Fold each of these.
Amino acid sequence: MSRRDVLKVSALGAAALALPFERVARAKTASKIAESKIPRPYTLPFKVPPVIDGRGGGTITIAQKMQNAVILPGVQTPIFGYNGITPGPTILARRGTPLNIAVSNELPAKHPNWGYEAWTSVHLHGSASKPQFDGYASDITRVGQTKTYQFPNNQESRTLWYHDHGVHHTAENAYMGLAAMYLMSDELEDRLPIPKGSHDLPMVIADKMFAANGSLMYDDEGHSGLYGDVMLVNGQPWPNLKVAKRKYRFRILNASLSRGLRLQLSNSAPMTVIATDGGLMPKPQTTVQLRVGMAERYEVVIDFAQYAPGTKIQLRNLGVPNSRDFDNTDKVMQFEVTADAFDAANNDVPAELNPQNEIMLLDETKVPGIKTVKLDLHRSNSTWKVNNTTWDDIVKSNYQTVVANPQPDEVQIWEITNKSGGWFHPTHIHLVDFKILSRNGKAPFNYELGPKDVAYVGENETVRLITKFAHQTGRYMIHCHNLPHEDHDMMTQFRVGTDTVDNDPMTSAPAGPIGAGGGGVTVIPVVNTSTPATPTATPTAVPTTAATTATPRPATTTTTRRRR
Ligand code: C2O
Ligand code: CU
Ligand code: CU
């Protein structure tokens, strides 16, 4: 054989070997349930969670409950839900109108499968809430207790989300379903001709895995991360959304515990990003690929005007390093263009959105004596740490240790470093919005040029950001939003200004027993949220009017309390 033939044969041999090796090396699914129970992608309709309109202020009551949900067709899956559904109800709020939410913990005393005590703490992610209403991890509400949270709604319009933050069980509680959207609007947003009403849709993306009996499986591989094989959008596996020939606004939230996403349309059409975690960007930015780490929010406008009715376009996930892929985790959902008549109002993206955003105008060269705070993210002795400390160290200090103590309204630079090549850490700073200045000295992605509260700190990266410690004083958490990392124990805190009796996260507003009215509010039992299974082809979500126009989430069924 000539040398060339040898090369050919070995190339063939390598190709022949590659296939079975690939099959062995790559698990097809993570779930243990029969494959026939998992729906084929794009066969189920897009759904949106029901809406609670809190724009008038006052107090909303929400119960955290375990209920059975139908996530896989014909399969009952016990979930933890705000009002027993997941995602929980989308709450509408208005800038300048504070809103109270009385949350009762009516979960089973112990998780039926995993045995832990189901204490909770509610965090409104994206809100400058006071420390005692910020879901401080150790400020827990035990089963049978309630707590009334006060949300000031004093920032610019944005896509927030509320999710559990109970110490050491944030990951399990959020994975079980305690996560939902909270949309705050304002006059600036009202004035913009961007898609609204039924053309403004939430897209809560999360991966799950299912045990043989249909319950959710939890495996975080020694607190490394949980990677499910079933991709849900608003609680529905790989849905199909019928769209009219116009622009739509999607409020993308990566609510996965550990899976990073890199989204791209199947036809590689550009997407127009109009808002980041902290609301509208100064200017829209177009991109073909959008990386979305856990807890990041991006509002994206996609224009379907150019497509013939019947065209199908998929939203794909190209994956990120150090997230485990399965056969269908490269698929998220599908858009199916229709010939339907549509309302052509608010079908635009202006060249400027929020050019005066205060955070995006911050300039380190204009702040004499600006301080730089450094955070180092790493793992040692199989524990995740920030600056070599854990949340347990904070607890041992009676919640006093802090990594920074900015004065009210102080502007600082923070530098977050991840020296590991094997992990990425989407790092969240509570209370503030920030501007990402650089990543390893290079400019951030164009779609990151908006106010952020989570920074994707990739493998061997240092992210430099600037922020202003406005709105409140007191102690706030900083943590990795890979929730198994956060729980074990990559979380620390900072203090703005000084502590007072009115801003102590542990003692200013502790939970009280249900019925006694924790926080001085009487808790009204929540009505049964069960609705008949009526899949809807066309979403009518995120109504700008009353909650009654919301599409109910179909197929939550009767409560099954499995106590032990
Ligand atoms: Cu989205 Cu401290 O969390
Ligand atoms: Cu937060
Ligand atoms: Cu992490």
Amino acid sequence: MTTDHSADAAIDTLQRTLALQRKACLAAPYPALAERRRDLKALRLALQRWQDPLAHAMSADFGRRSESECKMLDVLGPALQIDHAIAHLRQWMRSARRGVDWMFLGNSARVVYQPKGVVGVIAAWNFPVVESVGPLVAALAAGNRVMIKMSEFSPRCTEVLRRMLAEVFPEEQVAVFGGGVEVGRAFAALPFDHIVFTGSPAVGREIMRAASANLTPVTLELGGKSPAIVGRSASMSTVARSIAHGKLFNSGQACVAPDYALVPPERIDEFVAATLREFQRMVPDPVKDPQYTSMASERHADRVRELLADAVAKGATVTSCGAGDGARIIALQIVTNVSPRMRIMQEELFNPILPVLACDSIDDAVALVTAGPRPLALYYYGSDADEARRLARDVHAGGMTINDWAWHVFQCDLPFGGSGNSGMGSWRGPEGFRALSHAKSVFTVRRWFPIHLFRPPYGSRIQQLIMKIFLGHGPAGDADASATLAEPSPGGSSR
Ligand code: NAD
């Protein structure tokens, strides 16, 4: 495993590790089911053993991060994903019989799921273990080798993860790297067999550009403005409890956190009061509560203050749900009287600011959401089945939870991924196994099958019969058309 000396040394190490992993792929191109299960079980045991060091490291990287949330999401999440993969791996790996075309009856066709090779994983900082170990689980299940590039904002977690994974896997199977943007650029430029990237849409574009030079396929887990749509039929206490939780979990630094709420105009005051109450019930004192997470850096905290100042300067009203420490601990800030000119409606928030907009009908909600880039998550609160169905069918978003936030993300059998600006592809569930495998078509010709009938000399009776059965006679005038094509005019154009 590597250490971060200088960017140049790190880049050399990246190239050397890729060469090592590629060689290992060639030597053992198709790990057996038992081997993959053994690796996944070893990884699960390592997560159990290292849960405290991982949680401490994540918390220290943030300044303060809820250790309960660290374990609940970053450790338990991948552990459950491993259990699901182990249970389904035999079925996922099984080659699938497919039908053969009528004129090839008697032969056989199947799809073999082959490991792609070396998968490069680039993680963000907000859930650093989920975003690195999650894709690792999928990649190992699919029989790949994996190189992971962690975020420069999670150095302690990177170090613990490196030690944990080195205990379980040799470098030619799994390797972890830290480093800043320069190392990230060099990493994305490596000729991987697949890249899984988690991060912002802006950097996602750079990753895709770098990957295109090698024709490396990409899975992009990006972000966006995920709306929470409150229907008239919703119970306000359910809505408030859920949205307050969605914004306090990791202090809103979650890709699927509700970004803004659309609320019927006559219920906005009730919504603000209920959300404030629910936040204070769960976090009475954000500064003293060790389970309340800080902003990940000074820069991220300053951005919250800048966004609020911009909104206030443009006419917004801010309801603060609690005192912060003036630095990186910031309570939920509910913003009303919001206009599209405000930065809070133009940028993904990724923090504890909650803009609330009046929305009179589900038609208005659909129009507003579909006018912007496609969000990563979509939330609907209410008991109107027609409204829920309409949103599920008509509004593009990565995923959707009805009557709460984010729980679709915790279902191991569901794919998790974005759409359009919020990403492409998924590394989870059966879709993840397939994304990180090559679906190879294998067609076996039986010895007795008269395949020679398809070869030249063309025009045999049987070929003519087949063409006649499948294509019939050409349309009238066909002969004239082919004559014209056969003899182009001297100028090269056909009039
Ligand atoms: P980011 O895009 O700034 O960085 C992500 C990773 O890319 C980091 O490891 C970083 O070092 C690396 N990187 C930065 N520039 C690079 C470059 N030019 N080439 C190669 N690598 C580069 O994102 P972030 O600030 O770490 O995370 C916040 C964003 O991530 C938000 O938009 C959020 O919605 C999104 N996110 C998405 C998911 C998801 O699953 N869809 C999960 C978490 C976060």
